[in-house]
Amino acid sequence: MIADGVHSFSDLVTDTAILIGSRYWTAPADKEHPYGHGRFETLTNIFIGVILAIVGIGIGWDSINSIGNEAKTNPGMLAFGAAIVSILVKEILYRWTVIQAKKINSRALHANAWHHRSDALSSLPVAIAVIANYFVPDLHYLDQVAALLVTAMILKAAFEILWPAIMEITEAEADSDIENKIQQYASENSDIREVHAIRNRRTGSSILLDFHLLVDPDMSVDKAHEITEDFKSHILEQLDEVVDVIIHIEPYNCAERVINPCCGEDECHDENPKD
């Protein structure tokens, strides 16, 4: 029960981190942060994950050390009622927080929602242990077992929050499906001959995207610019998480082609489905 209480108290710490962090990651881009302040949200996620991990390790360590120690008193039905109330309240908080996180597209708020859910789930073994201990007083070890289950749930939640944040900090690909979507959008535009070198990375709840776009070598600069701007607008409309797109324009010639490279006249024919 104490372990579950400590877990619930950690909610207060992470909620405070969300309130403070949101003031920074929602700030617009400036001279010092030209790509925006999204990484402040990532740092908040890391903070939430670390706090959860510390709480989980502390509870687990205490539980292991106390295994075999006989409790002086058995928990009463008041403890059971407290666990049930905690389950209901935390589940309500989880559902409400998830709705708000989706509205504003906040990964940090979504992480905190799962912190509430893990709190609700961790109260289940507590409630079971209390009620079992009440009816079978000799099963003292159930309290330590329940605490270890709480520890496992907390550490699982901490990992699921920390891992995406670590991947973001190490510049991992944000979404593996984006390349296929860009290729699909490009295939629907007859003015675009090819797109390649597609890269995307996450900053907070947003994704930054860049790629090379090939057009007819004889096309004017103005026309090529117009095509890329229209294509950029289309991407931003279709992909909600993408907030910025950098497009490098190149001529569709043998030196720049990657997907459909040029080859010798005797080896193959230059085939372009859009010609």
TrEMBL record:
Its main location: membrane. GO terms for cellular component: membrane. It is found in: Membrane. It is a multi-pass membrane protein. Belongs to the cation diffusion facilitator (CDF) transporter (TC 2.A.4) family. FieF subfamily. This is Hypothetical cation-efflux family protein. GO terms for molecular function: monoatomic cation transmembrane transporter activity. The keyword Iron applies. The chain crosses the membrane at residues 43-64, 76-97. The keyword Transmembrane applies. GO terms for biological process: iron ion transport; zinc ion transport. Keywords: Ion transport, Iron, Iron transport, Membrane, Transmembrane, Transmembrane helix, Transport, Zinc, Zinc transport. Residues 175-252 form the Cation efflux protein cytoplasmic domain. It comes from Photobacterium profundum (strain SS9). Residues 1-167 form the Cation efflux protein transmembrane domain.
